[in-house]
Amino acid sequence: MRQIFIVVLLLTSSLFAWLDFPEIAPHDDATCGHLKAAHSLQFPPRPMTRNQAAYDVSFYDLDLQIFPDTELISGTLGVRVTALEDGLDHIDLDLHNAMTVYDVTDLDENELTYTHNDDLLDVGLPQVINTGDEAEFVVFYGGPPESAGFGAFGFSTYGGEDMIWSLSEPYGARNWWPCKDTPTDKPDSMDISIRVPDELIVASNGLLAGTEEVEGWTTYHWEERYPIATYLVSVAIYPYMHYQDWYVTAESDSMPIDFYIYPSSYNQVYYNYNLTKDIIAAFAGRFGEYPFLDEKYGHAEFVWGGGMEHQTMTSMGGYSQHLISHELAHQWWGDMITCGNFHHIWVNEGFATYAQAMWYEMRDNSIESLHEEMWGKRYLGSGTIFVEDTTSVGQIFSSNLSYNKASWVLHMLRHILGDDTFFAGLQEYGDQYRFSHAITEDFRDVMEAVSGMELDAFFQRWIYGEYYPIYSAQSAYADVLEPGLDPLLLGSWIDITIHQHQTSPLFQMPVDICITTTEGVVTFTADVTEQDDEFRYFVEGIPTAVDLDPDNWILRSVQNGSLNDVGTILMGDINGDGATDVLDIVLEVSIIMGSYQPNEMQTWLGDVNMDGNIDILDIVNMVQYIL
Length: 627
Hints:
- By secondary structure, the protein is of the alpha+beta class.
- It has 4 domains: 2-239, tricorn interacting facor f3 domain (Immunoglobulin-like), CATH 2.60.40.1730; 332-463, Orthogonal Bundle (Neutral Protease, domain 2); 470-569, Sandwich (Immunoglobulin-like), CATH 2.60.40.1840; 572-626, Type 1 dockerin domain.
- The protein has 12 helices and 31 strands.
- Helix 3 (321-329) crosses helix 4 (346-364), helix 7 (399-417) packs across helix 8 (419-432) and helix 8 (419-432) packs across helix 9.
- The radius of gyration is 32 Å and the shape is elongated.
């Protein structure tokens, strides 16, 4: 018996003909389809082959029939590739050995040579192609995807009904369909056709182009017309309840928001799901317009306890505002711009985690809400945000490093640059790498260009270094008085030494110094670059407290220091020459400007140039010395 599958390849019309392939026999290990594990059980990646670097995929056409009873899939994949160098005579695709390849043909159904070993499908092309040339072929395959490694494609149940799902990040797409499984190669577009028993509904990427019902089976035809990374291709299958909301842009364009939910979940999820359009609008104001506006955004419930940002259709295992905002932010940071490799996963996860905190800031119109959210994301332990070992999925998805500490990098950078520059930089980053991929240095370079600041030391220390700064401040102040019958307090000069206590290398960071005085509160920013850095400020009133980073803009620890009163400076005959004159005025200016130092009192003599006269030349010399 043979199954007939249609493959639709969008050019001017269907290029792939009706094609036949064998029906797959049920496998013996038909286990209960409940969720059994997490990302960590996906197999580690094989490095991209030399051949895979020699071509680019421009289109995939995936057509699957899914058999819930036997937990098998059966399908075809049409592929269009473009050669990036001359002399290309074969194409390597990633496909786990648990899948069986039945045939590979060209568009005219002529069989092509192929081998399938070590999770690699090597397809021989009918003729050699050179740079810029295209080749197209079709793979017929099938098998038990769960046997390929749990965590990428699962047969589960919910409420006694079949619940079939995919979650391919980071290396799981190859577990259930042949592809060049790397985040740097995004096809320009993709067709996804999924055939399931009639009672089931399929949610996937892009727009639903139509459905077809034939003899107890329904095929859902989804079309993704934006570039998409392989790990973001997804299916979520269940007897869903489907309803729709709308996002309206500032220019009054509208876009559907599709919700595929368990019918029993409606009352639970409705309130927060109803906020989705508001979160899109909030993020669009800061990140630029929603990137997939010509298609949709949506949620499809599935059996995981978290979520996964599948492009235009997030798989949701919850309904909190934290989860909704995080996964939605990925549509910009992760889907529109994808990490160039999983060493730099923080440009996906750190961005989305910081967006969670920003949603509460914007929702409440409160910077305090931002700081409260960020305080809960502090991580003060070891390890680098840069993922050293990308064969460890646990390291890639470290909540402490890739998510929480990485979100603090953006939080700190925002304060360093200021809101206007920071958000202008994010939008420029989005424009430059739209529908492509990026790594840390790409983001750094954009932010440097927009801000005009040198940020290499910042990124080097926080992304590639460990730990955090531990600060303390030692302070000494002197009151500045105008003498007379009733002395007038002019203010105080205060010396502050900021010390870094950590044993790891120093952090070169601007640090806010908040000085509370009898007249109020004033904040200065000190550029701390040394283990012991000294700073001097003139303030109104008498200092009563000194606080470092009081608003928690830095991922740091602060130890309490001392604030010492070292005496009084009497304005008047400051240089002790027996007269209150213009030289004393110069010294007053120096004190207020922060240039006066008590241990240099001997410098402030009348005859500075030692020519035997106290005159205008001495004043000029003093001013030059001060400035």
